[in-house]
Amino acid sequence: MNDKRCDNFGSFSDKTRRAWYRLSKNKLSVVGFVGVVVIVLAAIFAPFIAPYPTHAGKVVDFLNANQPPSLAHLCGTDPMGRDVFSRIIFALRSTLLMGVVVLSISVPFGTTMGLIAGYFQGSLIDSLITRLTDIFLAVPPLILALSVAALLKPNLMNAMLAITITWWTWYARLAYGMAVTLNREYYVRSAQLLGASWMHIIFKEMLPNCLSPILTKMTLDMGIVIMTAAALSFVGLGEQPPTPALGTMISDGAKYMPTQWWLTVFPALAIMIIVLSFNLLGDGFRDLFSTEEKQ
Amino acid sequence: MDIPILKLSMLKKYFPYKKGSFVKAVDGVSLEIFRGETLGLVGESGSGKSTVAYTIVGMYEPTKGQILYNDQDISSLYKFRSNEIKGKIRIVFQDPNSSLNPRRTIRQILFTPLKLHKNDRYKGFPASPEALLEEVGLSSIYAYRFSRSLSGGERQLVAIAHAIATNPDLVLLDEPTSALDVSIQAKVINRLMDLQNRYKLSYLFITHDLSLMRNVAHRVAIMYLGKICEIARTKEFFEKPLHPYTQMLLSSIPVVTDEEEQLKPKKITSRGEIPSPVNIPPGCSFHLRCPFATDQCKKLDPDMKELEAHHYVRCHLY
Ligand SMILES: Nc1ncnc2c1ncn2[C@@H]1O[C@H](COP(=O)(O)OP(=O)(O)O)[C@@H](O)[C@H]1O
Ligand code: SF4
Ligand SMILES: [Mg+2]
Predict the structure, then answer these.
(1) Which residues line ligand 2 (CB under 6 A)?
(2) Neighbours of A97 (CB within 10 A)
(3) Nearest CA distance, B142 vs chain A (angstrom)
(4) CB–CB of A194 and B113 under 8 A?
(5) Which of A130, A256, B74, B307 sits between 20 and 30 A of B258, alpha carbons compared?
(6) What is the A5 CA–ligand 1 centroid distance (Å)?
(7) Who's near A141: CB < 8 A, 6+ residues apart?
(8) Can you tell me the distance from the alpha carbon of B150 to that of B9, in angstroms, rounded to the nearest whole number?
């Protein structure tokens, strides 16, 4: 009816630009965004950034053992003479990998389960999925992950598996609530009346309307998954030596506290910065999506 | 007349309410809709109009009664209906903001019915989202937009395009223009009538705005508390309304011409408000508000009578 209106209105690139503008107005989320980018780049380019790339492995240099922080060793060295800063940079890799793998399995799986249960609300499949998530959610995730990891051989794979098993349920819960609300929307009813399959309704009608809260939760969760991973490696259930893991570095360093404080403090600081960056970015997303909703 | 496209006989839809009582949203509706015809279904808010439409498309299962499509019984939930029936009876919801998915482009929205009902369309029927948009008078540029960037009238036109995409026989229009500005209403209605002529569509046009029906409907049915009070051809309906409730409604609508003014029944003052469908009064459900109510009306529910050809009234006065 009104063809004169700007054609670009509501187009994708326009929307991203506006979203970025609003996100950038919140200083803290910019800090989070920059932090996340720096962390990811550091993990990817670790061999080029770490001053002593070989120290990520089984290197022994007793001459330089237990050095306090200096210009040569920004975060000092450990009892084997390895550069702590280099090891932290390399530890980012398994840490981020952990988060990415855990979330990229548990989020699609949990979301799908939640949407199915919510769409078939009141059916047998709903009670099955809901029971299952209730059981998982009744146990604190760290305890559950610890027991799963303890049952299996301790390595990075199994630590990821353990966290994934506990994590999907949160997304199932989130998606369930959204599906129940979306069931009442007329576009969902309209698709049903047309004869659309449940797959079409769940993935094409419902899922696109769930993406914003899921993305927000993913970003906020990245930090928590990383902490859980660190906790697992702290008790020796994660990545095995000599590959560096932040949790292992802290637990190993704790024996030398307080004299060789740098062995614990710097890896702990690294975890804090990672978690904080993802949380700030996640908060930014949340604000962004909630203002978008209001418009 | 030939056989109706759709026939409702004593259709009832009760919703469970507190402690074994029911909301009698639809309480014995019988009507017929013929090919190419617009039947106006008019009633105050809460009289059960939407429930009639939702039951016809199978969103609700009838509590009692029958829905016949081309003489075939389809009184079941949509899940149990054939895909062909789903494409032949379509609905346009009242609120176009909720009937269009905000996260899908207009193209994706319109593509769904086209894809699901490929075989139900004849050759030459619009077969692409762009062609459908042009069919309802919108530019095909709109295909790549989201509904959010469209005006209310444009959204409703997209919803109409979505409904006709399956090449239906019958479209149920649930107050299709009541959420729109008056200036846009006429545009949307003209487009609907245009589509009706082109594709021989039958409409069940639901509205609470009786004056709208004068130029749109071939026949008008008046609904009150889940029941039909009167059905007549539009001309007769406005010239010779028989049911006291119809007269009350007609006496309160604005008129345009002197001729219409003369036809308008004398002001009938109604008493009270529409009762709740949980507690429908015994006898004639209108008796609490009817100025002509007698003792008989309080006890006995009147039957539908055909007083003249195609003019049905449900009232003890006749
Ligand atoms: N799903 C439902 N459950 C319970 N009561 C309902 C439901 N849908 C409608 N009703 C009730 O049925 C009556 C008729 O509603 P409706 O068909 O929407 O009327 P109208 O469209 O004429 O305004 C109202 O009293 C309404 O509260
Ligand atoms: S039956 Fe009686 S109460 Fe009902 S409309 Fe007719 S006159 Fe009025
Ligand atoms: Mg209604």
Answers:
(1) B 244, 284, 286-287, 290, 292-293, 297, 302, 315-317
(2) 15
(3) 9
(4) yes
(5) B307
(6) 39
(7) A163, A166, A167, A228
(8) 40
Distance CA B89, CA B168 (A): 6
CA distance B179 to B161: 18
Q: How far is A207 from chain B (nearest CA, A)?
A: 9
Cα–Cα distance for residue pair B141/B133, rounded to 1 Å? 9
3-class state of residue A24 by DSSP: helix
What span, in angstroms and rounded, lies between the C-alpha atoms of A61 and A111? 49
Q: How many CB atoms are located within 10 Å of the residue A240 CB?
A: 15
CA B98-B102-B106 angle, to 5 degrees, is: 100
Burial class (CB in 10 A: 0-12, 13-18, 19+), A263: buried
In angstroms, the CA B51 to CA B209 distance is: 18
Rounded Cα gap, residues B106 and B123, in angstroms: 23
How many interface pairs between A and B have CB atoms less than 8 angstroms apart? Answer: 74
Cα three-residue angle A41-A263-A75, rounded to 5 degrees:
50
Residue B94 C-alpha to ligand 1 middle, in angstroms?
14
What does the DSSP 8-state code read for residue B265?
A: P
Tell me, what's the ipTM? Answer: 0.89
**What's the B268 CA to ligand 2 centre distance in angstroms?**
13
Comparing CB atoms, the residue among B58, B148, B151 nearest residue A10 is B148
Q: Which of A3, A208, A211 lies at the smallest CB-CB distance from B139? A: A3
Buried b or exposed e, range B197-236, using 16+ CB within 10 angstroms? eebebbbbbbbbebbbbbebbbbbbbbbbbbbbbbbbbeb
Report the predicted TM-score, pTM, of the whole model to 2 decimal places.
Answer: 0.85
* Contact yes or no for A189 and B166 at CB 8 A: no
Q: Give me the pLDDT at residue B268, please.
A: 62
Structure tokens given for B84: 């062909």
Tell me which of B158 and B2 has the higher pLDDT: B158
**pLDDT at B88 exceeding the cut of 70:** yes
Q: Which of A184, A193, A209 is best to mutate for the B interface (most B CBs within 10 A)?
A: A193
Residues 6+ apart with CB under 8 A from A267: A84, A88, A91, A246, A249, A250, A253
Give the residue from B61, B94, B103, B155 with the most A CB atoms within 10 Å of its CB, the best one to mutate: B103
Q: Are A193 and B78 in contact (CB < 8 Å)?
A: yes
Are A204 and B108 within 8 A, CB to CB?
Answer: yes
d(CA B313, CA B307): 7
Distances, alpha carbon A157 to alpha carbons A97, A163, A179, B17, B165, in Å: 11, 10, 32, 54, 51
C-alpha of residue B206 to centroid of ligand 3, in Å: 8
Question: How many Å apart are CA A163 and CA A228, to the nearest integer?
Answer: 8
State the distance from the centre of ligand 2 to the C-alpha of B318, rounded, in angstroms: 10
Mean pLDDT in order along chain A per 10 residues (295 residues): 43 71 79 91 85 74 76 76 85 86 92 96 93 86 77 78 86 95 95 94 94 90 84 76 79 82 88 90 83 61
Question: Residues B70, B5: contact at Cβ < 8 Å?
Answer: yes
For residue B23, give the ligand nearest its CA.
1
- CA quadruple B75, B79, B82, B87: dihedral positive or negative? positive
Closest CA to A226 of A28, A11, A36: A36
Contacts (Cβ under 8 Å, ≥6 apart) of A295: none
Give the number of whichever ligand sits closest to the CA of residue B95. 3
